[in-house]
């Protein structure tokens, strides 16, 4: 559903797209993140500023927002297929002063409304669905306003990414489990020690004791001096209803905005069955010891 644009917004956008009207393009010094100020064109409050970033992750921080920004995101590898990318953005804490739209060929879809205080909410969309159009909302005093968000470009060609982004509470299929083992940022065998529910953040924090560490790209799990295990925690949505339980699981997932997010997590005995069947049939996409 396309939301109604703010008064004067659509002509402003179309004017830029058709006639090239707007402020000069702004390039990030590191091509990953951008910081700017609306005060640079205070006398032209209807200016649209172009921002170009060439990175798989970074951030936007717009102080004193006036006018609008068009944020152009590109992956940092030339071989990446755009149609297989998902864009995720996470507004910074207390971000205010602008609406964030998804824009494609002049059509606008409201993504994040100014003042939305949904804690830690992540907004994801297909790269081919459009770009980001950030429009400042009318303010009596812009001096206290900063609009900002983190972004990530995710390859949605793997089942683990599709699962994490689209429906994190859904049980994984056998094929998704096997692909998650091969492509996840972390893969561990372990048990749930505790689950802490954060109602305000709408998240559950799962404390895990891991007996086997197959892979991790970040230091999610740290060695314990007590019993030789690995300790760490993973986050997931509160609505998934995760509870402490007996037995071992195979925990997989990915890092999202610096946090470990739960992907596929079958019981370990189920993973052993899935892996053995795939190996016997020559269908396992990668080798990993199931024991």
Distance between the termini: 49 Å
| CATH architecture field of the largest domain | Sandwich
Helix coverage percent:
10-25%
Low-confidence stretches: 14-24
Beta-strand percent range: 35-45%
What is the radius of gyration computed over CA atoms, rounded to a whole number of angstroms? 22 Å
Count the E strands: 17
Integer count of domains: 2
Biggest β-sheet description? 6 strands, mixed
Coarse shape: elongated
CATH topology of the largest domain: Jelly Rolls
Helical segment count: 4
Instruction: State the secondary-structure class.
Output: mainly beta
Order of helices and strands: HEEEEEEEEEEEHHEEEEEEH
The neighbouring-strand order within the major sheet is 1-3-5-10-7-8
**For the record, what CATH class of the largest domain applies?**
Mainly Beta
Summed over residues and divided by their number, the pLDDT gives a mean of 82
Main location: secreted
Family: Belongs to the meteorin family.
GO cellular component, one term: extracellular space
InterPro entries: Meteorin-like
């Amino acid at each position: 559903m396309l939301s109604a644009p703010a008064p004067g917004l659509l002509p402003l956008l179309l004017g830029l797209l058709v006639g090239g009207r707007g402020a000069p393009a702004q390039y990030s010094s590191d091509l990953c993140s951008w910081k700017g100020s609306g005060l640079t064109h205070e006398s032209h409050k209807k200016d649209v500023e172009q921002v170009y970033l060439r990175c798989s992750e970074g951030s936007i921080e717009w102080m004193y927002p006036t006018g609008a920004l068009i944020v152009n995101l590109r992956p940092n590898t030339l071989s990446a297929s755009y149609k297989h990318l998902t864009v995720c953005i996470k507004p910074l804490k207390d971000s205010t002063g602008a609406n964030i739209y998804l824009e494609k060929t002049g059509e606008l879809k409201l993504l994040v409304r100014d003042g939305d205080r949904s804690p830690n909410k992540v907004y994801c969309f297909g790269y081919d669905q459009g770009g980001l159009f950030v429009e400042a909302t009318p303010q009596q005093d812009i001096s206290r306003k900063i609009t900002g968000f983190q972004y990530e470009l995710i390859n949605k060609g793997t089942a683990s990414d599709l699962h994490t982004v689209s429906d994190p509470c859904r049980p994984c299929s056998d094929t998704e489990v096997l692909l998650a083992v091969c492509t996840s940022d972390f893969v561990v065998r372990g048990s749930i020690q505790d689950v802490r529910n954060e109602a305000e953040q709408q998240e559950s924090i799962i404390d895990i004791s891991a007996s086997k560490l197959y892979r991790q790209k970040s230091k999610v799990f740290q060695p314990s001096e007590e019993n030789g295990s690995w300790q760490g925690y993973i986050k997931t949505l509160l609505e998934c209803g995760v509870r402490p339980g007996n037995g071992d699981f195979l925990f997989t997932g990915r890092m999202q905005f610096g946090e470990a997010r739960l992907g596929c997590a079958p019981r370990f005995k189920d993973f052993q069955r899935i892996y053995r069947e795939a190996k016997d049939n020559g269908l396992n996409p990668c080798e990993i010891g199931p024991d």
